[in-house]
């Protein structure tokens, strides 16, 4: 069994080629934001609200996106990130 994060989610590893292809799929920052919002309204997710916040992580300001949709099981999340 894979190691678990502090929140009980199985940790995944990604190859550098996946990270590179994923990072270049959105050439404009707002297209990535639009996709996150679009994903929240996908069938089966049915989020009614989306929150966008700014947090500080390791001295850097970051955007966080949270919705009240149905979410993913830890297993589904692990498969998506694999």
Automatic annotation (TrEMBL):
<dbReference type="InterPro" id="IPR045261">
    <property type="entry name" value="MORC_ATPase"/>
</dbReference>
<dbReference type="Pfam" id="PF13589">
    <property type="entry name" value="HATPase_c_3"/>
</dbReference>
<dbReference type="InterPro" id="IPR036890">
    <property type="entry name" value="HATPase_C_sf"/>
</dbReference>
<dbReference type="GO" id="GO:0005654">
    <property type="term" value="C:nucleoplasm"/>
</dbReference>
<protein>
    <recommendedName>
        <fullName>Histidine kinase/HSP90-like ATPase domain-containing protein</fullName>
    </recommendedName>
</protein>
<dbReference type="GO" id="GO:0016887">
    <property type="term" value="F:ATP hydrolysis activity"/>
</dbReference>
């Amino acid at each position: 069994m894979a190691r678990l994060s502090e929140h009980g989610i199985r940790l995944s590893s990604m190859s550098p080629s996946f990270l590179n292809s994923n990072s270049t799929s959105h050439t404009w920052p707002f297209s990535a934001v639009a996709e996150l919002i679009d994903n929240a309204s996908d069938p089966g997710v049915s989020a009614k609200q989306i929150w966008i916040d700014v947090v500080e992580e390791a001295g850097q300001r970051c955007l966080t996106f949270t919705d009240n949709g149905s979410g993913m099981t830890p297993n589904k999340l692990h498969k998506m990130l694999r």
